[in-house]
Amino acid sequence: MGKKVLFAILIAAIVVMSTGCSEKKVLNFHDTAVSDSTLKKNVPLQEFYKENLEGKKAFIERHRMQLTYNCYDYSYVKGPESITFIIASGTAANLQGNDSKELCNANFENEILVITDGFSRDTVFVFNGSSFNGKITNVTEVGHGSPWRFEIKDSQKLKDCLNLIEKWDSLHIESSYSMPGLKKEDKFSTFLKENEKLLKDGDLIDCFDKRVIDQQKHDVVNFKKRQKGK
User: Fold this and answer.
1) Checking phi first, is residue 134 left (phi over 0); if not, alpha (psi -120 to 50) or beta?
2) What is the pLDDT of residue 230?
3) CA torsion angle for 45, 51, 52, 57 (degrees, to 10)?
4) Spatial contact of 71 and 145, defined as CB atoms under 8 Å apart
5) Exposure string (b/e) for 59-89, b if CB count within 10 Å is 16 or more?
6) Looking at residue 40, what is its pLDDT?
7) Which residues contact 77 (CB under 8 A, 6 or more apart)?
8) Residue 16 to residue 13: CA distance in whole angstroms
9) pLDDT at position 4
């Protein structure tokens, strides 16, 4: 399905959902309560709001990796193509105001929204973590997430993706998994460089889980065992 068709369907669905919301009190979007701060973690949104539209697009590009990780942390997604960033304007329905439990509508202009396709499909505001329901009047697409998995194969060696792996290392990624030989304080990129000769075609490097998966054996790679098996 083409991107234009996708957004046309999205907007049409949102318009339908907005039926009957015009009777509620209308607030400024930034007078609404934050329901979840995951998507804006380590993202300096105060800088985003100082920019014009072109500057906001550039802002998302600068922080695409952090936003991608935040989306992964918010709602498990299979890959970067399951994340779509948009800058949109319109009216959101049924948001909670900062000073009241009463649900209100809110006007917004050029806000970052993320469409995720993980456990379920959702459109969420980065600013307050609220799922979107309402009417969009203008959309600027700003691309998908940044890749965090890299497969080792003839045309893709470690050196080809090392720069991106090092950039992921610069973010604070909290992994609940572990890999044999990788200490908590170790940089994943450094660990991979030290064991580069033990990587095989088909290995999948996952920068979020901080693991290397042997896809043929469906198991986490143990470099020490590989060394002994040589």
Assistant:
1) left
2) 61
3) -60
4) yes
5) bbeebbbbbbbbbbebbebeebebbbbbbbb
6) 97
7) 71, 83, 116, 117, 118, 145
8) 5
9) 53
Residue tagged 């993980």 (tokens): 118
pLDDT tens-digit map of 90-108: 999 999 998 877 899 999 9
Instruction: Report which secondary-structure segment, H or E, holds 190.
Output: helix 188-194
> What is the C-alpha separation between 87 and 110, in angstroms, rounded?
5
Q: How many CB atoms lie within 10 A of CB 28?
A: 11
* Partners of 212 in the β-ladder: 205
pLDDT value at residue 55:
98
Tell me the three state secondary structure of residue 166.
Answer: helix
Six token digits for residue 129? 């973590």
Q: Which residues of the chain have pLDDT under 50?
A: 1-2, 5, 8-9, 12-13, 15-22
CA neighbours within 13 Å on the CB side: how many for 123?
Answer: 20
